[in-house]
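User: Reviewer 2 asked us to show a designed sequence for the structure in our supplementary figure. I'm pasting the structure tokens here. Could you produce the per-position amino acids so we can include them in the response letter?
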């Protein structure tokens, strides 16, 4: 798959690390850490040195109880940062948004792909914006309740629904990446079951799979740890996800996850 100027082989053994850059004051893990463009650029440079191949820029927190902000405010937070990253680094940039206006502004600023946490089910128009720009899209499983008939069956069905929405706008299958949505519309037990069912989700949807479990509450609830002490749990889940077939890993600590995933690749594919 080509994303921006870079080719990605998601069918191979290589694990791709996506560094999280939240330019928000209230994200659950790193909110308020990057209050200026220069702060953000410093962090991006560090993540690239540590092995990130993708930078995911987000301008609105999606933690439980987050405050919805206007398109204008989200654009003001993200567009200048995206422009600055693309001016300075040869790195793939994705924009974490589910709003069409923000997506359009981000793509104009230089983003290479949209990362939609609602899988085009909150606002379908990012599908049109993405299609018009000739870019790809990441579609995450999400819902506003936890009432499943059969969890894995439902996740697969609802991811496929998002794929059909994307295709209805003319986005080709070779421009689609899926995300099982750990931490979204799921209880702790659901999240653990999704981790166990990743191989089936991947095989039955047939698309490259992104795993975004970095420091999430499933780790904190399972190990009884605050957000500042969840790195080992993150690494463990990413290695399990890699073994199940995930190839993109959205993380806060690039260096530690890069090393762990490279080690897992060396063992599994030796």
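Assistant: Here is a per-position design you can include in the supplement:
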């Amino acid at each position: 798959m080509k994303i921006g100027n870079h080719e990605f082989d998601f069918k191979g053994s290589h694990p791709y690390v996506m560094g999280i850059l939240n330019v928000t004051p209230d994200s659950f893990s790193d909110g308020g850490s990057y209050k200026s463009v220069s702060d953000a650029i410093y962090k991006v440079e560090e993540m690239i040195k540590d092995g990130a191949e993708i930078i995911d820029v987000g301008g609105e927190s999606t933690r439980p109880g987050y405050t919805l902000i206007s398109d204008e405010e989200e654009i003001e937070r993200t567009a200048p940062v995206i422009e600055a990253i693309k001016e300075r680094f040869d790195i793939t940039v994705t924009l974490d948004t589910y709003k069409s206006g923000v997506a359009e502004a981000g793509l104009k600023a230089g983003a290479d792909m949209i990362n939609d946490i609602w899988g085009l089910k909150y606002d379908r128009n990012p599908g049109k914006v993405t299609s018009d720009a000739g870019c790809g899209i990441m579609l995450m499983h999400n819902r506003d309740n936890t009432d499943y008939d059969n969890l894995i069956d439902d996740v697969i069905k609802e991811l496929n629904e998002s794929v059909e929405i994307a295709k209805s706008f003319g986005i080709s299958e070779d421009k689609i990446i899926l995300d099982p949505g750990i931490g979204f519309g799921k209880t702790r037990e659901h999240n653990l079951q999704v981790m166990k069912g990743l191989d089936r989700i991947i095989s039955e949807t047939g698309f490259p799979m992104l795993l975004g479990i970095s420091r999430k509450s499933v780790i904190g609830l399972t190990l009884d740890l605050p957000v500042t002490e969840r790195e080992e749990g993150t690494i463990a889940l990413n290695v399990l996800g890699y073994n199940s077939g995930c190839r993109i890993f959205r993380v806060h600590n690039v260096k530690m996850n890069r090393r762990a995933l490279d080690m897992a690749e060396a063992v599994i594919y030796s």
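For the response letter, you might also mention the following. Residues 26-32 have pLDDT under 50 and may be disordered. The two ends are 25 Å apart (CA to CA).
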